[in-house]
């Protein structure tokens, strides 16, 4: 008798455990809600669409959508039935939408076909989960050159800022193609102010790119000038390969860590031999004079600097016009700011 009871208890325990496992199976619960939707067992709501009727259960759709809950409260009763309308979108899109309220799922083919309608429905009827799904699907692959403008307009209407920003960037990036699409032509007629805003933003984008490029080029020039100053001090103080102070032992094949040295060596040799090296007499010599003056502006060594004419240029600074003084001061500040320093290391006493 004891063994029979034990067997019975074991079997009962197994069956209850099996039932719990089945009840916890997500696919089983989804199938149950799906059958309830499609079979319409004890449905009490008629949803009129553009070309048909979708049956639903008021408790379920009211819990899933606060907007539908308000519509159901105001709907007139006909026996146990309450009737509401969802029009302006295809009947099949409404069916996919209501099915989602039951199962929180959709078929891939349905999403691909009705994603724009589902985005609108989820926004209007306040179903945030579905709205996020639609936005993600569009961002990750359902955006095309043909629907880009339409999605951009819907994103603005449906308060989807991330999606509208992505569309806006894609429109600017592919403007020549997008401007020939039917969506663009329709937008020009229905929302001309949007066309104007996009064109203005495209112009601003181009101006920003040009400004960014200008600053990059300026930064490149300032870095080159800084490197030239380092190389000039290196040549005049330590010597490099074939040029330098008389008291230095120069080697033509010795390596040099200053990339500007090679070009500067040629410029110094030209300056030393040129018969027109007076300021303004030769383009190359004029550049050398400017480098000498720039060096004097950066140099903090008072009297014993090894670079030629450094002291002479420092004495001339007080005699220059205020305009020239400001111009040189700005140049020096920009060079040091580009390097992120206050004083160039090559001008400090070693």
From TrEMBL:
Record GO cellular component, one term: endomembrane system
UniProt biased composition (Polar residues): 1-26
Keywords: Metal-binding, Ubl conjugation pathway, Zinc, Zinc-finger
Domain of life: Eukaryota
Domain BTB: 43-110
Localization of this protein: Endomembrane system
Membrane topology: Peripheral membrane protein
UniProt entry tagged with the keyword Transcription: no
MF-aspect GO terms: calmodulin binding; zinc ion binding
The protein's annotated pathway: Protein modification; protein ubiquitination
Segments for region (Disordered): 1-27
Gene Ontology biological process terms from the UniProt entry: regulation of DNA-templated transcription; response to hormone; response to hydrogen peroxide; response to salicylic acid
Classification via PANTHER family: BTB/POZ AND TAZ DOMAIN-CONTAINING PROTEIN 3-RELATED, BTB_POZ AND TAZ DOMAIN-CONTAINING PROTEIN 4
Protein name (record): BTB/POZ and TAZ domain-containing protein 4
Protein source organism: Vigna radiata var. radiata
């Amino acid at each position: 008798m004891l063994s029979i009871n034990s067997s019975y208890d074991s079997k009962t325990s197994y069956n209850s455990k099996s039932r719990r496992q089945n009840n916890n199976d997500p696919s089983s619960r989804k199938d149950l809600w799906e059958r309830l939707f499609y079979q319409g067992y004890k449905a009490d709501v008629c949803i009129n669409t553009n070309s048909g009727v979708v049956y639903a259960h008021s408790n379920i759709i009211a819990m899933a959508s606060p907007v539908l809950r308000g519509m159901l409260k105001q709907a007139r009763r006909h026996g146990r039935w309450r009737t509401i309308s969802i029009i302006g979108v295809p009947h099949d899109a409404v069916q996919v939408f209501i099915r989602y309220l039951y199962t929180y799922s959709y078929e891939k083919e349905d999403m691909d076909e009705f994603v724009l309608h589902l985005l609108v429905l989820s926004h209007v009827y306040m179903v945030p989960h579905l709205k996020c799904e639609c936005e993600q699907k569009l961002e990750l692959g359902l955006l095309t050159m043909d629907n880009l403008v339409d999605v951009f307009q819907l994103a603005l209407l449906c308060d989807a800022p991330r999606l509208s920003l992505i569309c806006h960037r894609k429109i600017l990036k592919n403007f020549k193609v997008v401007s020939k699409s039917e969506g663009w032509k329709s937008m020009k007629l229905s929302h001309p102010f949007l066309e104007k805003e996009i064109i203005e933003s495209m112009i601003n984008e181009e101006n920003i790119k040009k400004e960014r490029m200008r600053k990059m080029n300026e930064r490149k020039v300032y870095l080159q000038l800084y490197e030239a100053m380092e190389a000039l001090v290196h040549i005049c103080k330590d010597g490099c390969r074939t040029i330098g102070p008389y008291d230095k032992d120069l080697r033509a094949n010795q390596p040099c860590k200053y990339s500007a040295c090679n070009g500067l060596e040629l410029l110094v040799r030209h300056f030393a031999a040129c018969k027109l090296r007076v300021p303004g007499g030769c383009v190359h010599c004029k550049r050398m004079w400017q480098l000498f003056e720039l060096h004097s502006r950066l140099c903090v060594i008072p009297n014993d600097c090894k670079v030629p004419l450094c002291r002479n240029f420092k004495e001339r600074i007080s005699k220059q016009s205020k305009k020239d003084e400001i111009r040189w001061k700005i140049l020096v500040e920009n060079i040091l700011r580009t390097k992120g320093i206050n004083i160039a290391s090559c001008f400090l006493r070693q």
